[in-house]
Amino acid sequence: MDFGKVLSRAWEITWRWKVLWIFGFLASLGQGWGGGGSSYSFDSQDFNAESWGQGIPEAFWAAMGGVVLALICALFVLAIIIWIVSIIARGALIAGVAQVEDEEQTSFRRAWDVGFRRFWTLFGLSVLAALPILILVLAGMVLFGLGIAGGIGLMDVQEAAGIGTIVTVSLLFGCFLCCGLVVLGIVLEQIRVYGERAAILEGLGWIDAFKRGWQVIRDNLGPTIVLWVIFVVLELIIAAISIGLTLLLVAPSLVLMGVTEGEAWSFVPLLCGGLLGLVIFALVRSVVTAFVSASWTLTFRELTAGPAIAEVEVAAV
């Protein structure tokens, strides 16, 4: 497999067809976003536990409780919507690259339509990929609890034996369970990556697509590992650049805040720098997500030599 050819073609498609950046941004939303917060240092004169809240009507706290509950519900609904949109966008990314390869053109509507039609299949793949992890975690928690309970029981007979049992169980489950989760998570994630392409490009159902993803990994383990390592290194490089850029944008504002002793207007440059950094990060994240997805799509096509889009999907578009 010519990795240079695949990666160069993926970058060419990503750079030329910038509509894929939109899908990359939407797909990256489902991968989670980091957040930060600010803190304020105060002493006992700023807060008195005995007098705090006195004089405030109870109706105010009832209203605030309702507002907080409504906000939590709204955020939960928003998270579900973002997750659904990210799944559709992943399918649209795959379809868009396949359309470019086969027809030398694509559009937001055509690619999105394919991702939307295959949503439930992609959703099923995500569930199948997460289910073994959930089962392993639950089984590990049960066994860990039984081991700790056994150690506590031994402490009534011999304290040293009980403590030794607790420590041994904690170390074994802490090491083996974490290592097992990491390895299993990587394998399942890669099965999902190939399975999504089988669902979009070959028109398979979610169970058959999952099996197809495992088959592609099993038959092409070497190229898959090489490409996976390449993308891990790429992610580390991007993370380092992002951290460095954030420090460059924030450091002058922090110095200014120190010189001005935290005056209100000194927070404006910090806010502007933070917003600029967020925009840059979102743009880079969108392009990288589109490029990685395009690379895996081209890799899947080359490894399987299968059709670009199932005939039923072409007819639907």
Task: Pick out its properties.
317 residues; mainly alpha; 0% strand; disordered C terminus
How would you characterize this protein structure?
This protein has 317 residues and is mostly helical. The chain is 82% helix and 0% strand. The longest helix is centred in the N-terminal third of the chain and has 46 residues, at 58-103. It starts with a helix and ends with a helix.
C-alpha termini separation: 32 Å
Q: What is the residue-averaged pLDDT?
A: 77
Helix/strand order: HHHHHHHHHH
**Main sheet?**
none
Structural class: mainly alpha
Give the amount of beta strand, in percent: under 5%
From the alpha carbons, calculate the radius of gyration and give it in angstroms: 26 Å
Instruction: Compute the number of helices.
Output: 10
Quaternary state of this entry equals single chain
Shape: globular
Helix content: over 70%
Beta strand count:
0
Low-confidence stretches are: 32-53, 306-317
Spell out the blueprint of helices and strands.
Blueprint lengths: L2 H14 L2 H11 L28 H46 L4 H10 L1 H39 L1 H44 L3 H14 L1 H39 L7 H38 L6 H6 L1
